[in-house]
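User: You have something folded?
Assistant:
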Amino acid sequence: MIALIRSETTKLLTTKATWILALVTVLGTLPMAWTNSASSADLPADSELLFSLVPIPPEYQGFEMAGFGYVLIVALAALWSGSEYGSGKQIRTTLLATPKRLRVFVVKAVLLALVVALIALVTMTGTIIITHAAANTGIDPWALTPAIWANLGGVTLAWTLTALIAFAVGTIARTAILPLILIVPLVIGVGDFLAGFWPGAKFLPTTAGAAMFNDPASGTFLDPAMGALVQAGWAIVLLVAAGVAFTRRDL
């Protein structure tokens, strides 16, 4: 088991795409957070130039920047699940070295979850600190409130569960393409848009996840706890299906 963890960790961390996507997520989001906050610092709370015409409570400000990294996290998960099924069929080598397929699947999923959670926490904590430092929100950026930390936990969990969902879809399809086609439109706002006029869209995986770091008073999202349960349910069902496919299907 230790050898498997070591080999999969090496595989994930020596892949250029992992570092490129992680760095672009962090280094791309933070400057945008500063630009967005600094440019709106002197505007009235109901200005039409702001992200929302309705004033956003301070504990939810800055979380709109999660969308950029969300796309890159889905790309990372899709590549991690589908890259070994390319023309080289690296997955055959992996399973020859470790015939116990379920262990391989679980280790891959756990490693992805840990990496994505770290990226999410670093990216969004920096984003929120910058937001409150650049804008007149009344929040000390170096002493974030418990409500803001709860939302940071929510966005970290949402990114992680979304990555696991993309990983499961990629494993089932044995390609990185399908999770990109299915999930990227949802994370760039299609799910939230649909939820504006169709209540059933609140139960889509990414929209349910967004409930964990968006203002429930907007009426667009589920209660945060319900959102977490719904998105976790999506992730568990898809991971079980992917695990079954991974362990029983011929290569």
Summary: The mean pLDDT is 87.
